[in-house]
Each structure stands twice: as C-alpha cells, then as structure tokens.
Amino acid sequence: MSKRLLEVKGLTKAFGGVVAVSEVDFHLNQGEIVAVIGPNGAGKTTLFNMITGVLPPTSGQVFFDGKELTGKQPYQIAEAGITRTFQNLQVFENMSVIENVMTGVHCRLKTGFLQAGLRLMGVKKEEQQAFDIAMSCLEKVGIADLAFEPAEVLPYGNQRLLEIARASASSPQLILLDEPMAGLNPQESRQLVDIIKKKREEGMSFLFVEHDMETVMGISDRIVVIDYGKKIAEGTPAEIYENEKVIAAYLGTEDEEEAI
Amino acid sequence: MNHSRVNDLYNRHYGGLFLFIVVLAIVPFFVNSFFLSVLILVGLYAIVTTGLTMLMGYAGQISLGHAAFYGVGAYASAVMTGTHGMPGIVGVLVGVILSIVIAVLIGIPTLKLKENYLALATLGFGIIIFTFFKELKEITGGLNGFFGIPSFSLFGFSFDTDLKFYFLIWVLLIIGILFSKNVIDSRVGRALRSIHGSDIAANSIGVNIQQYKLKVFVLSAVYASVAGSLYAHYVTFINPNLFTAMESINFLIMVVIGGSANIWGGMIGAIVYVLLNELLKDIVPVFFPNVGGEFQIVFFGVLLVAILIYMPQGLAPTLGKLWGRLVGRKSKKQAVTGPPNADATVGGSK
Amino acid sequence: MELTSQFIQLIFSGLTIGSIYALVAIGFVITYNITGVLNFAQGDFAMLGAMLAITFVSMDIPMGLGIILSIGIVVLVGGIFERTAIYPARNASLPTLIIITLGVAIAIRGLAILIWGTQPRSLPPFTENNPINVLNAVLLPQSIWAVGISVVSLIAMHYFFNKTFIGKAVTACVVNRSAARLMGIKPEWMSFISIAVSAGLGAIAGIIIAPISGATYEMGLMIGMKAFVAAVIGGLTNAPAAIIGAFMIGILESFTEGLWTSGYKDAISFALLLLVLFFMPNGLFAKATGKRV
Ligand SMILES: Nc1ncnc2c1ncn2[C@@H]1O[C@H](COP(=O)(O)OP(=O)(O)OP(=O)(O)O)[C@@H](O)[C@H]1O
Ligand SMILES: [Mg+2]
C-alpha cells in the first residue's frame, strides 16, 4: 500500500452562524485520484480553501506528507507541494499564456529583486529554465501554440487548461481541481480526463470536485461525499453508486440540474 | 526549436534606448536655461513615477501617499547637508534609510488592505507625514520652509550648474528605469503582476504576496526618496506644501497619463504632465487674463478622468508603437512590445 | 468648575463638527453600498454647497431660497458627475474608479478657485447668533442649527431608504439586483440616485458649517477625509456606525485642539484611521467577509 499523502482531520469552517464544513475527515494516498462530490453549497469549495490555506479552518487539522499544514499561508502550502485550480477562473489576465505558467514555476526558482534588477549571472539561465518548464506544461495540456497570446483572449475551456498547466508547473505532489469540467464541451472534458490520467502516471495525485458523474465514476479511485458540510459517505465508485445516503442526498435535490 | 523563443518573451533590444540616450545627451545643448530646468523637473518626477509604476501598474497596489517619501528624502538631505554640513550622499542615504523604515512600518499593515482601504490608508499616512514636516519646526523650519540647501556634490564633484544637474538626474533616471525593466522581465516581475491579476491564485501557486507587495512598496519609496533628496539640492529651498496630498495625486496623474502597465509610462507621464503644465501656463492667460494656475488643476482633473475612461492604457502603448516605427524596429507580435494588458488600468483585480 | 465648562464647551464643538462629518460620511456609505466606489469627490460637494449658498446670499436672494437652490444645484452636479464619469467607467477596476473620483474632486476644486478665488468666505448665521450660556459654556445657535439639521437630514434619509418606493428599490438593489429590476427600477439608475442624494447631503453639510468656520475652495479635502475615517469606523457599509464614528472623530478633534494643539489635529484623526484599518479592517462593528473563489 502506498503512503498517505494528505490527511484531513475534523476540518470545520463556520461563517458566522453558517457551518459550511463540519468535522470532515478523509485521506488521500500517493498516486490516488480522489473525488469530492456533493450538492451545490455542500461546502466542497470551502473544504478546498481550507486545505490550500485560502481560508483558516475554525477547527481541525491538515497533514501533508507527514507534516502539519494547518494555519499555513497558501504560498507555503504551494511550496510544500499542493497547488490548485479555481471554480471561478483565476487566470492572470494581465499576462501572456506562457507567463501565467512561468509564474507557476515561481517556487522552484530563486531570482530576487536585486539579482533581477542588476540582471546578475543566473537570471538568464533561470528564465530559460522557467520558460522550458512552462512550455512543456503547455504542451501537455495541448495549448502550447497559444503560448504568446494574452491569457484573457483564450476561450473558457482553454483558460481551464491553462490553470491546470499553471498548477502543475511547480511539479507539486498533489493538485486540487475545483470543478475542472465546468463549462467544457464533451470533447474538451475527455481531453482533460486524459491529461489527468497521464499526469497520474507521472506520479501526481489529484483531489477534485466535480458535478459530472460520468467523469467522477470514470477516473476516481475513491469518492468522498459531502452534504450540508458533513461527510456522508466515502468509498470506491461502485460503493458510492449504491450508497443509500448518497442517493437520498441527491434525490433531495433532484429538481436542481446538478443532480446525477 | 521553442527554446530560443524565451528571447521573444520580453523586448530586450537596446537599439532604441541607445538612440534615446543620444537624444538626451544632445538636447541640453540646444535649449534655453528655462527649458533645461523644466527637463530637470521632468527627470526628478520621472524617477518617482517609475517607482510608482512598478507599484501601481504592475503589482496593482494604489498609493496616494508617495509625496511623503519624496518629502522624507528632501528633508533628510536638507537637514543633513544644510544643518549638519554633511556630504550630499549622506543626505541621500539617510533619506533612503528613513524611507525604507517608514515604508516597512506602514507597508506591513497597509498592504494587507484592499483597494478602497489601501487608497485611504496611504492618503492618511501621507497627511500624517505632512503634519510632521509642518510641526517639527526646530528641524524642518515648519511652514516657513528650509532655506539654503547647498548644491549636490559627489566625491568632490559639485553638480552646481543646471547642465551638470541635468546629466545627474537623467543618468539616474535611465539607471532606475533599466533596473525596473530588469525586475519586471523576471520571476519577480511576474510575481508582482500575478498579484495584480489575481492575488488568491498568485498566493496559491507559491507567490508570497505580502512580501512582494512590501518589497515593491519599499522599492518605490526608495525611488521617491532619492528623487526628493536631489530635488531639495536643486531648488535649495523646500517647505511642507511641496509634499501635500495634492502632490501625491499629481504623481498618480502622471502615472495614469503615461500608462501604468509600461515601464516607460512613468517617464512619459512626467514629460507630458510637466510640458502640458508649462504650456497651459503660457497659453491660458492669453485667452483668460485673470486666470491663474487654477485652470491647470481643472484641466488635469478632467484629463485624468478622460484618460481613465477612454484610454485606460495611457499614452505609452501608442507612443511605443510610434517610437518603434521611428527607430525602424519591425513590430513583432503584441506580446513582444509590452505586457498584453487590456485592462492596464491602475490597481487591483476586478 | 472651569474644567467642566471647558469640557462641555469642547463637547459642543465636537458634536457640531461631528454632525457635519456624519452627513458626509452617510453620503459615502450610501454611495459605497450601491456602487462599491469610495467617492473622493464627496467632500467637495460640501464645498460647492457652501460656496453656492454664499454666492446666492450675497446676491440678496433670501437665505432659505438660496440654500435650497444650492442644494438643488449640487444634487444636479452629483448626477452629472455620475453620468459622465462613473457610469461610463462602471466596468473598470475599482482603483480606476477611485482615481476617477479623485480627478473629479480636483476638477471641482480648480473650478471653485476659478469662480470664487482662494480667499476664505463666510455665510451669515441662519438666525441671530447670540451665544447661549449653558453651564458656563457658550453655545452658539448656529451649532444647534448644525446638529439639528443634520439629525433631521439623517432621519429623512432613513425614511427615504426604508419607506419610500425609490428608496426601497435602491436598498433592494444592494441586496439583490434582479429584485430591483422586478420592481421596475433599472439598477443602472441606482448609482445615479445614490450619488445625487449623497451630493445633496454633502451640500447640506457644507452649508451648515459655512457660518461657523467659513468656506474655502479646499475645505472639501479635509471634511471628506474626516468623513472617510468615520465611514471606515462603520466598516463603510453600516450607516448608524458611521454616524457614531463621525461624532467620535468630531469630539476627538475638538479635544485634541482644545487640550493640546491644533497642529497635530489632523494627524491624530488619521492615526485613528490607520489604527482602525490595521486592527479592525472591517470597521468597529462589522463581521468578516471575504472574496469567494
Ligand atoms: N466567504 C464566505 N463567507 C460566507 N459564507 C460562505 C463563504 N464561502 C462559502 N460560504 C457558504 O458556505 C456554504 C458552502 O459553500 P461552498 O462554496 O463551499 O459550496 P460548494 O460545495 O463549493 O458549492 P458549489 O457546488 O455551488 O460550488 C454555502 O452556504 C456558502 O454560502
Ligand atoms: Mg464550489
């Protein structure tokens, strides 16, 4: 059995009176693809925000690779090896596509203000290094030909791919994807599934939120189900498929279009 | 094949710059003394606005308090050289150190704030510093001002004529711009711009956003302080009213006119601002004999609004294209000529 | 005895100036709630109101009429400002909008110098201004006018936003844009109404302070800044908290001035601003919120 990469214990977030996430525990092993599902407003994004340090948890702990990450800043968590994409796209619209991804390489490089300003030795080499890494990330998601375009002119689907390229540029051990398929057409979705599978073969792990059940069932090793902030089920796709609580949770919201 | 293209990422050809420097070197010998003094003023302002451009245009952090750093530099130099008879460089360094200390103290809490609050906090901080200039009368001379600041000298060489001073200022400015340009075209520059693009995403991919904001704030304060020091030596007399909130706003107007997402924007803005100002001073009285400097205030207020609405990228992109044609550079793709920034307006994400 | 009367005196002047800040601060809060913009021209509406009223009175127009005319004109100016500068830039980034309002503020200031010059001017008191003696402290009737009018205006605002159709629509718009649309009111007009109303409040503030401390072209900057501080204390969105903040600033200022020095008066208020921003960036009375991703 491979080692535990991510371990979440009793993670809780309250916004004033609203408890968005309540006492959630789960783990993710190295090389796994784990899906987090649940109806709208279940607390999935909030869970991601706590794991990546965007929001401080009200209580609970996050461990990664044996070290505690709770209360750390997002950039520290990225340095530790977790990056993410966003449900509401957060592409750097003021940069070109390649620069977006080169920014993703940030924590693997060292150039500081003085070194850069004086263009000391090593800066040029690092630029080349960042560029090469970024280019190969763009090639992997298939948008290398758009490298020099301003990121803001990219169509929605490509912006999603760009976020994934950017998140993978620092070669993190774990990437969190928040609804990566939202707004993609079926062909783009399939392409994205291939990308995720290929990256997993390279040793990356994924935790992702997704409403598209076909994808979820298709690529996840395990699934964590959240409803009203609480974990109601966890298991393999086959187990989840038959779990009554899950069915009830989704039936309860069947009239909303995100149901299975 | 792709790998050579890292060189296409940023325009780092210096042919145009060389030509520009040649022009700068020749110009002072063909203009009268008044125009020379105008060019010196342009250079001083441009040093401030270049730093401010990095802060506002690239990192997206608004500041309405930079006249304070300009003033700190000016008073540090005035006091060190005028009161204590120290060499000019000591004044500059004291100003820089003071500005760094103040910028760090103010920056740490202030830069956690967003847009509206940041604007307010920097404005408030500027007014507090102004109050100190005004009230610390034993040191600064208060509202009566500080007289008799000696001319700047460095290693025994005295910059005692306008011509010498012109070269001092413009050499410094070019160095300042090149330094900034180098910073922008690097890991650091991308980190700064990523904060502007989306601070949350920047943070989540490993950019320590507080630290970068603080560093660029400090850097811009240093630029302003150095310019302030030299300004004090140049005019030999300073008083607190030169460093008011209005002066901070003037710097901001220059940055916006020039175009905040272009490293030459600060300089272009300073040139256009000062020249327009002088032009209006000459022209307006011809038509309205009773009108004084107030017309300029109205004019720049309206110009600021108009540029932000109709030309949010400022003049730099347009002028950049013209200049490129002038020096015969083949225009490559847009990404080559500058940051492809359509919403190049000042500050934060939407 | 001496001390109590001085104390009361300082409270009186603090409340007077605080009531001015309250009016301008409420203008900020209204504009901010509806447009999300911090309007740096808000204080200059006060200056405009004062200058116009002074001009009308000097033209022998009856004072009451002159005041109403001035307020009307400033409301109009506010509306024009919104249509020409804010509306066309409504999709720009926030800092851009802030700088736009700054541009308008200095344009108004410059215009004021063009028209009225740089000399301070003053407005006669609204009524006979014989000092009233209260517990050995001197109370000027104009101060009563100032506090009274601002309280009445604030109550009127409360009524406007909670009881009238337009006001309720504006409030609805803050909560839910489509709800406002359902009520047949275009959200685009909300920013127009909010800025015009705020301009009117600013004008009232300027007019009631003019007989007390006079009027100059640059008075708007400081009034505006102090009102900002007040609004920030209220977290920018909370009107009652902003009013409390305004009176706090007014009293703090009058005590600094009366007991220590007028030189550092402004620095003290802004130091308070910075303290509030640093330690309670959402105001003294607000709950935390954040951008969602
Ligand atoms: N910053 C915040 N402040 C206050 N409440 C919040 C905040 N972020 C989320 N919430 C609330 O927490 C709950 C969970 O929201 P969250 O965005 O995590 O849900 P989600 O599962 O990601 O939903 P969706 O599928 O729609 O993306 C919701 O009730 C939401 O309104
Ligand atoms: Mg979500």
UniProtKB/TrEMBL annotation, chain A:
Keyword RNA-binding present in the record's keywords: the answer is no
- Single Gene Ontology BP annotation: D-alanine transmembrane transport
One Gene Ontology CC term in the entry = plasma membrane
- Keywords of this protein's UniProt record, alphabetized? ATP-binding, Nucleotide-binding, Transport
Single GO MF annotation: L-phenylalanine transmembrane transporter activity
According to the lineage, what is the superkingdom?
Answer: Bacteria
SUPFAM superfamilies, per this entry? P-loop containing nucleoside triphosphate hydrolases
Q: Does the keyword Secreted apply?
A: no
Record-annotated ABC transporter domain positions: 6-253
PANTHER family hit by this protein: AMINO ACID ABC TRANSPORTER ATP-BINDING PROTEIN, CONSERVED COMPONENT OF ABC TRANSPORTER FOR NATURAL AMINO ACIDS-RELATED
Name of the molecule in the record: High-affinity branched-chain amino acid ABC transporter ATP-binding protein LivG
| Gene name as annotated | livG
Automatic annotation (TrEMBL), chain B:
Supply the alphabetized keyword list.
Cell membrane, Membrane, Transmembrane, Transmembrane helix
One Pfam family this sequence matches: BPD_transp_2
Q: How does it sit in the membrane?
A: Multi-pass membrane protein
One annotated GO molecular function is:
branched-chain amino acid transmembrane transporter activity
Which GO terms of the cellular component aspect does the record hold? plasma membrane
Predominant cellular place of this UniProt entry's protein = membrane
Query: Which top-rank group of organisms is this from?
Result: Bacteria
Membrane-spanning intervals of the chain: 12-31, 38-58, 64-82, 89-111, 117-133, 165-184, 216-237, 249-276, 297-316
- Compartments it resides in: Cell membrane
This chain's protein is named: Branched-chain amino acid ABC transporter permease
Organism ancestry = Bacteria, Bacillati, Bacillota, Bacilli, Bacillales
